[in-house]
């Protein structure tokens, strides 16, 4: 198994990052949150999970070990494959996911593309005793910052994913009403990506 990858970011797409490791470009499938932290030409270390299928070998990259562990755990639930698991960690933070399962919050789980009412109930039933309780804020540095700095962070994330500065400006303006007093950067980035995909 490949536990983590460290190397220079060679390329970024909407769904993946290519890290150069020992002269080899390794493509990692990543969530928008993870991609927003990467810059082409910069070095990065990402925890990874390798999924082997008959016809493919896919490596998923994560923001931190907590996200990776949740990704691997949710796949133990019936009907949850790597794509749905990745969608879960893209839409919900590990703690949001733990809180939803512990609180039997079907509505929150069905916000994830690919999970319906029955699927959410099955996930709750199968994971409730194993997923654990929310652990609180992960890192002080990841707490949303007050004021307007969120605009720069979301803008940089979109440009890093390949959108033009002009497109990023429009998307940031489109989600400005959702920012509130304490902006949730990952949520705003996801909302901005949705507006761009609709455009």
TrEMBL record:
Transmembrane segments: none annotated. GO terms for biological process: DNA recombination; DNA repair. It is found in: Cytoplasm. Its main location: cytoplasm. Keywords: Cytoplasm, DNA damage, DNA recombination, DNA repair, DNA-binding. NCBIfam families: ruvA (TIGR00084). This is Holliday junction branch migration complex subunit RuvA. It comes from Nocardioides piscis. The lineage of its organism: Bacteria, Bacillati, Actinomycetota, Actinomycetes, Propionibacteriales. The gene is ruvA.
């Amino acid at each position: 198994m490949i536990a983590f990858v460290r190397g220079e970011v060679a390329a970024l797409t909407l769904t993946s990052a290519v890290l150069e490791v020992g002269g080899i470009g390794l493509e990692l499938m990543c969530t928008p949150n993870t991609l927003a932290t990467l810059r082409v030409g910069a070095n990065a270390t990402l925890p990874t999970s390798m999924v082997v299928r008959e016809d493919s070998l896919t490596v998923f990259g994560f923001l931190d070990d907590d996200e990776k562990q949740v990704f691997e755990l949710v796949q133990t639930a019936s009907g949850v494959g790597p794509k749905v698991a990745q969608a879960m960690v893209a839409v919900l933070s590990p703690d949001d996911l733990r809180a939803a399962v512990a609180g039997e919050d079907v509505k929150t789980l069905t916000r994830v593309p690919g999970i319906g009412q029955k699927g959410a109930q099955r996930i709750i039933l199968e994971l409730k005793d194993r997923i654990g309780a929310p652990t609180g804020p992960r890192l002080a540095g990841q707490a949303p910052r007050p004021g307007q700095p969120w605009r720069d962070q979301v803008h940089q994330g979109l440009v890093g994913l390949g959108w033009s500065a002009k497109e990023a400006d429009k998307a940031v303006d489109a989600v400005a009403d959702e920012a509130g007093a304490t902006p949730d950067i990952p949520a705003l980035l996801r909302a901005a990506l949705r507006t761009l995909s609709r455009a």
